[in-house]
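FAQ: What does the model actually see?

It sees only this:
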Amino acid sequence: MRKIIHVDMDAFYASVEQRNNPSLKGKPVVVGGPPNSRGVVSTCSYEARKYGIHSAMPSTQAYKLCPHAVFITHHGFSDYKEVSNQIREIFHDYTDMVEPLSLDEAYLDVTENKMGIPSATIIAAQIREAILKKTRLTASAGVSYNKFIAKIASDVDKPNGMTVITPDKATAFLEGLPIGRFFGIGRRTEERMKDMGIFKGYDLKKKELYELLNLFGKAGSYYYYAVRGIDERPVESNRTRKSLGRENTFSSDLTNKEEIIEQLEKIAETVEQDCQKTGVYGFQLTLKVKYHDFQTCTRCTRSTIPLKNKEGIMSLVPDLLKKTNAGIVPVRLLGLSLGKLHGKLYKPPDPQMELNLFAAEEATGRITKLYRPEYPSSPVS
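And it is asked to produce this:
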């Protein structure tokens, strides 16, 4: 039985800016692209959120919602990194089983910890207190027996709060949870579920596994087990990178194929440079296109040869572009990323395994791994 903590800093970038500049305290602060740019909001202070501003919102829209907000670009990124390192040091005072998700959040497995403290709740409280003392910033935490519930729990009592979900409370907690609060369910999936009459975890739990698989593909398996409080994923302290890529948002929309190809070549050059720096190459290429209306399209293809330079990447791009509306519909963002990575820290590809995988994909369209781990019964303290 695991004891998992998810720690999430409160409005991290904006909070760092307010700490560094006390005159910003109490004001709506937006960190991201300037209001007259094509950029997006990275994060914003809780004062700004009262106006409806949120992460990933276009900066121009944020400005319309709150013209008097203070907009800050990432000029203090080194400050964010420094604070992040301080937070990680505190985590490692308690356990080396730390899985960072970003600069400002991480999973911790404290089932066995350096302090010998049997209560995950006490550890989470001590960590939050240590973060406040060292950084003068607040953090929220979720404590439970798996990653899925701990992640959701950390968002229940924000900012500067902590929520503990023990196994005996998990069923009622998940059944009463609005479907949009489930980690991994985005806005479009939420709208689709609501159209089906799925508004809370209780409604989702009524669906059989085969129904969810038919409706949502392999994600259906995740939804089926998540709403039942089942998540056997371990905290991975040395998580392997799954993709390597770059994307670019343009100051004006791209409207013809020639300039789209030209921009993709520039992005491919940057990806090649990243491959050279990291010693990594991939066997999968994903093209990301965001249109002028913010609708996003991704197209993916596999390669039998390693993808690590511009020429190899661009050889696959034309076929992927044909499967999009790029050049017909104006484009505001383009991205390229490599998957199925190998190289440093990665095992070399097994040719026979690759052939078997291609054959299976051609025959079934997709591969879905299903499992039903045992439901934890021991309490989390």
